[in-house]
Design goal:
Chain C: It is found in: Cell membrane. The complex is a heterotrimer of chains A (343), B (252) and C (257). Chain A is of the alpha+beta class and 343 residues long. Chain A folds into two domains: 225 residues, Rossmann fold, CATH 3.40.50; 113 residues, OB fold (Dihydrolipoamide Acetyltransferase, E2P) (Beta Barrel). In chain A, a hairpin with a 4-residue loop joins strand 11 and strand 12. In chain A, helix 2 packs across helix 3, helix 3 crosses helix 4 and helix 4 runs parallel beside helix 5. Chain B has a domain of 158 residues: MetI-like (MetI-like fold, Orthogonal Bundle). Chain B is globular, with a radius of gyration of 21 Å. The model of chain B has no long low-confidence stretch (mean pLDDT 88). In chain C, 38% of the residues lie in helices and 21% in strands. Chain C is built from nine helices and ten strands. The N terminus of chain C is likely disordered. Classes of the chains: A alpha+beta (343), B mainly alpha (252), C alpha/beta (257). Chains in contact: A-B, B-C. Chains B and C meet through helix 6 and helix 13 of B and helix 3, strand 7 and helix 6 of C.
């Protein structure tokens, strides 16, 4: 059964208006910048805040149910494990609260701890667990009641980088095994891309784009998404192979198109020259260095010009050009590197 | 360090004064006199009952103040502390005005049920609970406010009712605060004098608690008063130290 | 008025001499009783002494009388522990003896008033108390002073004389506490001093009883040996003993010694 949610939350300075559908077994990631309303949406789904939302699963609607009567499981950002209970009691809590006998609840909880690889930590108090272990206990606790909807609120945000990689892949495995509906709230594009089947991008309380990770990465529709996936992104109007950009300037592309389009190309497609280059590239324009940022293996240069552009160049090039903010340069871009799609 | 030592001395020197002045020779005979035993027993029973009442009503009240959705919560919070600032004798008079034989509520208790609270052991318990309750409420409320309400949300998402959440999640997490409040509350109830003598009067075996006995002994026999004070002191210190080790030691 | 002036003159003169005890009275001596004095007085003297204090201050510009009203035994203990008092007015000779025994008072105390007990009942006498025998009935709510305080000791004496075994519901720590219970209607009857009945106003009413004379309470007053302001202390004691002082005390219900 598909879960349909029309979430409407109104606050003094903020309104959330989001429609979501989640298929059984599907993981949907709600991705967006801070303050976009991701957590508000999660809380509305969980019944933790008052809203005039409509949530439907098959024949049943959840609108009038308080949180404790909704068939949900939540993994909170900092897990919120009950400190005075053992890991086993934490996992068994939901079952006990729903009326399962203690022995049965403990048996189920033990099985879940075993599944997340923490069988030997059943008697441990949460404060003795590592971050990754606590996250797995929280997941087991959320899943132990066999919920229809699993809500994950930034489940990896509290972990350090090295733990994160391992926990992320484990989480992905558990999510694949879970037959219910999953909503993952995150601001980390990598978490979303790796874990989710579908992305819903939220900005200012509204859905600005949705699709599979592949679709979103290839064809971002807002500056935020483009920034997330690391592409130069423009809006323009095409006339054959010539595209006039909304912010000024023009680009020549290889394939002729027409009408309003989005234009993207990777920063790595951009070349920089101290003098105006001669020869094949059809897109060249003057620009000045606005900022330089060192990444792992490349240097990202932010350039003011018409249009503004991000360029990834090798460290060798940086050394050769002796780049300083304010330096005048020439930007060059091959037409074949530019990708367009209708607006 | 020095201020701490001064603070400690300030608290302990009066105690030392009591011990220094104690009539050690007659102490045993005073100690085991039936009057002292009676007053001590009454004190312990009443203070404990008052503490139970405070727990039964004070913890939910603290929860209401910390978490409840009530208008004018700040004002309510201030009102709860009134018994702290009110001279206990005034508190006793206030209790008489409400629960006394001619009191707002008391007259109906008397007419309808034939219940009269002043001059009874129940009256002692009520007076002590009235004065001691704020200590419990304030410390439990503080603990509740410091506790993260998101744990209650987590419990709700796991299907726990409000009551189960309170019992299994909230209460255990504020246990140190509850214990501290209970200890304070009990100690305050044990030492209660003004409200008790005003509301419940003074009659041996019925309403004469240790502090009342101490006060009256002071009128004629200061030595006996010192002995009584020392007894009260030793018993309360003993009980509190015992509880502290068991409860607070276990809770952390 | 003449008497007042005479008393003031006497007081002033004595103070001027800077000695305690009767001395020369130069008629032309300037008003010299100044400064503060602290009077420790039995709680039952509260109203009448406050009035006397105000009059004393008016008659002696530059003087200031501070009062500490409390139970006589508590006051006696405070004095014996070195409290900086100038005058002690006790509700019982026994408490005065406590301070003369330790030498805190060396002058011989003077009895300045007497007080006797009276039955006090709430206005309208809802408990229908008519005399001491009613105090023995279990169904009546009765308050008495604890035996440890003077009014309780006096009550014990009158009950002995009347051959009544009282059945009190409470033994209060002082007269004022007893009166509170009567005023609030919490008890049907109580025994307190006549002066207290008078001071309590119209919320209560007093009932005379024959045995009251069997427990007459003498109130002694004396300046303290170590009075910080000995001259004024003596002047105040003399003022209390003056005709003006006695008149004020008589109005409060005290009997002359």
């Amino acid at each position: 059964m598909t879960l349909h949610a029309a979430l409407h939350v109104t606050r003094e300075t903020f309104a959330l208006d989001v429609d979501l559908t989640i298929e059984p077994g599907e993981v949907v990631a709600l991705l967006g910048p801070n303050g976009a309303g991701k957590t508000t949406a999660l809380r509305a789904l969980a019944g933790l805040l008052v809203s005039d939302s409509t949530i439907r699963l098959g024949e049943s609607t959840w609108d009038d149910l308080p949180a404790e009567r909704r068939p949900i499981g939540v993994v909170f950002q900092d897990y919120l494990l009950f400190a005075h209970m053992t890991a086993l009691d934490n996992v068994a809590f939901g079952l006990r609260a729903r009326g399962t006998r203690k022995a049965d609840a403990n048996a189920v909880a033990a099985r879940w701890l075993d599944q997340v690889g923490l069988a030997e930590f059943a008697g441990a108090k949460p404060r003795t667990l590592s971050g990754g272990q606590a996250q797995r206990v929280a997941l087991a606790r959320a899943l132990a009641t066999d919920p229809e909807l699993l809500l994950l609120d930034e489940p990896l945000a509290a972990l350090d980088a090295s733990t994160r990689l391992r926990v992320r892949s484990e989480l992905g495995r558990h999510l694949r095994d879970y037959p219910g509906h999953t909503l993952l709230v995150t601001h980390d594009p990598l978490d979303a891309m790796v874990l989710a089947d579908r992305l819903v991008i939220l900005e200012n309380g509204r859905v600005v784009q949705h699709g599979t990770p592949r679709e979103v990465v290839r064809q971002p529709r807002t500056d935020y998404v483009a920034h997330l996936v690391g592409l130069n992104f423009y809006r323009g109007t095409a006339d054959g192979t010539e595209i006039h950009l909304d912010e000024g300037g023009a680009l020549t592309v290889a394939e002729p198109v027409s009408g309003p389009v989005h234009v993207v190309f990777p920063p790595s497609a951009v070349s920089l020259y101290p003098e105006k280059p001669v020869g094949s590239p059809r897109n060249t324009w003057p620009a000045t260095v606005a900022g330089i940022e060192q990444h792992a293996h490349t240097t990202r240069v932010e350039l003011d010009g018409t249009p503004t552009v991000l360029a990834d160049i090798t460290t060798a090039t940086v050394a050769e050009l002796r780049l300083q903010p304010g330096d005048p340069l020439w930007v060059s871009l091959k037409a074949t590197e530019i990708h367009t799609y209708p607006r | 360090m020095l201020p701490a030592l001064i603070g400690l001395a300030f608290l302990l020197v009066p105690l030392a004064g009591l011990l220094a002045k104690a009539p050690w020779a007659t102490l045993p005979s005073q100690l085991f006199s039936p009057e002292v035993g009676q007053a001590l027993q009454l004190s312990l029973v009443c203070a404990s009952l008052a503490t139970v009442i405070c727990l039964l009503f004070g913890v939910p009240l603290a929860w209401l103040l910390a978490r409840g959705d009530v208008p004018g919560r700040g004002f309510l919070r201030a009102l709860v502390t009134v018994p702290l600032v009110l001279p206990p004798v005034v508190g006793g008079v206030a209790l008489l005005l409400v629960l006394g034989r001619r009191g707002l509520v008391g007259q109906y208790l008397d007419q309808w049920f034939g219940v009269s609270l002043p001059f009874t052991t129940t009256g002692v318990v009520l007076a002590e609970a009235f004065v001691a309750m704020p200590f419990l409420v304030i410390s439990v409320e503080g603990a509740l406010r410091a506790a993260d309400p998101r744990f209650e949300e987590a419990a709700a998402t796991l299907g726990a009712s409000r009551w189960l959440t309170f019992r299994r999640v909230t209460l255990p997490s504020v246990m140190p605060g509850v214990v501290a409040g209970t200890v304070l509350c009990w100690a305050r109830a044990l030492g209660e004098f003004g409200a008790t003598i005003t509301f419940a009067g003074n009659f041996p075996g019925k309403t004469t608690t240790m502090p009342l006995a101490v006060y009256l002994a002071l009128e004629t026999d200061p030595d006996a008063a010192i002995v009584l004070s020392i007894v009260l002191l030793l018993v309360s210190v003993g009980v509190l130290a015992g509880l502290r080790d068991r409860w607070i030691g276990g809770a952390t | 008025m003449k008497k007042l002036l005479a008393a003031v003159a006497a007081a002033v003169a004595l103070a001027g001499c800077g000695v305690s005890g009767p001395g020369l009275v130069p008629p032309t001596s300037p008003p010299a009783v100044t400064g503060e004095i602290t009077v420790f007085a039995a709680a039952s003297l509260t109203e009448s002494f406050k009035e006397l204090g105000a009059e004393f201050e008016a008659a002696n510009p530059g003087s200031k009388v501070n009062f500490n009203f409390a139970g006589s035994s508590a006051l006696a203990q405070q004095i014996n522990q070195g409290a900086p008092a100038d005058v002690f007015a006790s509700a019982a000779p026994a408490n005065m003896k406590q301070v003369t025994d330790t030498g805190a008072v060396t002058a011989s105390p003077t009895t300045f008033v007497k007080n006797t007990l009276q039955i006090v009942v709430p206005k309208g006498n809802p408990g229908k108390i008519s005399g001491l025998p009613d105090f023995a009935q279990a169904d009546k709510k009765i308050a008495l002073c604890a035996e440890q305080v003077p009014c309780g000791a006096a009550a014990k004496k009158v009950f002995q004389v009347a051959k009544v075994t009282p059945a009190p519901d409470t033994l209060e720590q002082d007269v004022k506490a007893v009166l509170t219970k009567v005023q609030l209607g919490e008890v049907d009857g109580a025994l307190v001093y006549r002066t207290d009945v008078k001071a309590a106003g119209d919320k209560v009413q007093g009932i005379e009883f024959a045995e009251a004379d069997q427990a007459v309470n003498d109130y002694p007053i004396a300046p303290l040996a170590k009075a910080p302001n000995a001259a004024a202390a003596k002047a105040f004691v003399d003022y209390v003993l003056s005709d003006k002082g006695r008149k004020a005390l008589a109005e409060a219900g005290f009997a002359a010694p």
